[in-house]
Design a protein that fits this description.
Layout: H1 26-32, H2 35-38, H3 42-58, H4 64-82, H5 95-107, H6 120-156, E1 161-166, E2 169-175, H7 176-201, E3 203-204, H8 220-226, E4 231-232, H9 236-241, H10 244-270, E5 278-280, H11 298-321, H12 336-358, E6 360-362, H13 364-371, H14 378-387, H15 392-409, H16 418-424, H17 431-435, H18 438-443, H19 453-466
Parallel strand pairs: 3-4
Antiparallel strand pairs: 1-2, 5-6
The structure holds arginine (ARG).
The site of arginine has 10 residues, from helix 6.
Length: about 475
């Protein structure tokens, strides 16, 4: 009898069933299973197994023939999954055991060698890392795509002036492009964070086995090379218990979602009748079932809303990990739902948001008009007085009096007559009107990083270069 099939009378038992005499309680089986969630790791799992087999054959832990048979078998299992031919069942717990079980059916008893020198603990850590490396690259590409839309919009609207706000009160005029480039900076940091965390995802844990390493003469560098990882993990206990890279990914995603959410809030405000700064295209809005006039900014609202679930995922993963003793604990099986949900949410939000954003119409005149009321030139009146020799703190006081005076008269600052101005300070001359025009206010903001026409033009050029747009 083949030494591998001696226990064939026990074949219907779990892959780990050797020491068990009772069957698993059905409810526990359902409860314990993660297959509904982790089946999406199937291709990473197969990729990892193939590398493991190649390494084992290279190290003569198994023969080249055995490896060849199993690699072919894994190819068939992959096809089965992709053709929806695999029956998923709670009794096989997770994707790792489904694949191993299916391989047994395809390749026979030799499949029992696949799990040599490996544990599901290092296997799952590897699978998640393979998966997340690919997804992080996709996320970075999508974020670049959105940045391109932002910068193109900034480039084609360099002459649009809008009120800049603090406390959501009109503060000082700024270029619309300058406002957009503030988001460019935020997403630039997001991309940097994802690139940075990619380095820590890109570490190959296989070979840690359950937690202590293995007695087989592995060549972990070989596996690392086959799987195109940058480095091998240094500590077997850490290899199977580390989920920092998941926490980091979700944390960076939360920040990126918060950036989207802030821009959502602005687009929602700007598209309201109260602002009327922009119109979101019909294709990216929805109507109301009762109010025929309504055009709702649902995409922006939903992206803002979905920020909540990503931040929730961050809280889940942090809470999940906070008290876990080393090394692997089954709690960690719960890492996948928040991770997958975060990946899915961030990707779809970035995609749909980019398209919606590319289709907004900007109402230049409305934005400009909004700059002419609300005393956006009060700081500039103070600056004017400083240019005439007054100290800034004193000039601030005079400009404040001018605002109060104008309010009493129901006027804007630039509507005050020269006599009215001079009743406040005899330093004020005719040139004050020119000084207080919206265009002059913008063009005087020459400090690096400010909203001056030239600096913004240069900032747009710089961003275009960074994105290979020119
Ligand atoms: N499904 C498990 C997970 O996702 C795989 C690892 C199981 N390891 C174990 N020792 N039970 O975490």
């Amino acid at each position: 009898m083949d030494k591998n099939s001696k226990n064939s009378n026990r074949e219907n038992k779990k892959l780990w069933g050797g020491r068990f005499s009772e069957e698993t309680n059905k409810l526990v089986e359902e409860f314990n299973a993660s297959i509904d969630v982790d089946k999406r790791l199937y291709d990473s799992d197969i990729e990892g197994s193939i590398a493991h087999l190649k390494m084992m054959a290279n190290q003569s832990i198994i023969t080249q023939d055995e490896a060849g048979t199993l690699i072919k078998g894994l190819g068939k299992v992959k096809e089965q999954i992709e053709n929806s031919e695999m029956q998923f069942s709670a009794s096989l717990e997770d994707i790792h055991m489904h694949i191993e079980d299916a391989l047994g059916k395809v390749s026979g008893d030799v499949a029992k060698k696949l799990h040599t020198a490996r544990s599901r603990n290092d296997q799952v850590a590897l699978d998640v890392r393979i998966y997340l490396k690919k997804e992080t690259k996709l996320v970075i590409d999508l974020l670049y795509g959105f940045q391109k839309s932002l910068v193109k919009m900034a480039d084609s609207h360099l002459d649009v002036i809008m009120p800049g706000y603090t406390h959501l009160q009109r503060a000082q005029p700024v270029l619309f492009s300058h406002h957009l480039l503030a988001y460019y900076e935020m997403f630039k940091r997001d991309i940097q964070r994802f690139k940075e965390c990619f380095k820590r995802i890109d570490v190959m844990p296989l070979g840690a086995a359950a937690l202590a390493g293995t007695t087989y003469p592995l060549n972990r560098e070989f596996t690392k090379e086959v799987l195109s990882f940058s480095k091998v993990s240094d500590n077997s206990i850490d290899s199977v218990s580390d989920r920092d890279f998941v926490i980091e990914f979700i944390s960076h995603s939360s920040i990126a979602m918060i950036h989207f959410s802030r821009l959502c809030e602005e687009l929602i405000l700007w598209s309201s009748s109260e602002f009327s700064f922009i119109t979101i295209s019909d294709a990216f809005t929805t109507g109301s079932s009762i109010m025929p006039q309504k055009k709702n900014p649902d995409v922006a609202e939903l992206v803002r809303g979905k920020t909540g679930r990503v931040v929730g995922n961050l809280v889940s993963i942090l809470t999940l990990m906070k008290s876990l003793p080393l090394a692997y604990n089954k709690d960690m099986q719960e890492d996948k739902e928040p991770l997958f949900d975060t990946v899915d949410t961030l990707k779809i939000c970035t995609e749909v948001y980019t398209r919606m954003f590319e289709n907004i119409k900007v109402h230049k005149k409305r934005m400009y008009k909004a700059c002419s009321t609300g005393f956006l030139n009060a700081t500039d009146l103070a600056d004017y007085l400083v240019s005439k020799g007054m100290a800034f703190r004193q000039a601030h006081g005079v400009a404040g009096q001018a605002v109060a005076f104008a309010l009493k008269l129901g006027k804007e600052l630039d509507d005050l007559s020269i006599e009215e101005f001079q009743s406040l300070s005899d330093l004020i001359g005719q040139d004050v009107y020119e000084f207080l025009t919206i265009e002059k206010m913008i063009s005087r903001r020459i400090s690096y990083g400010g909203t001056g026409f030239d600096s913004v033009k240069q900032a747009v050029q710089k961003a275009m270069k960074e994105l290979d747009l020119k």
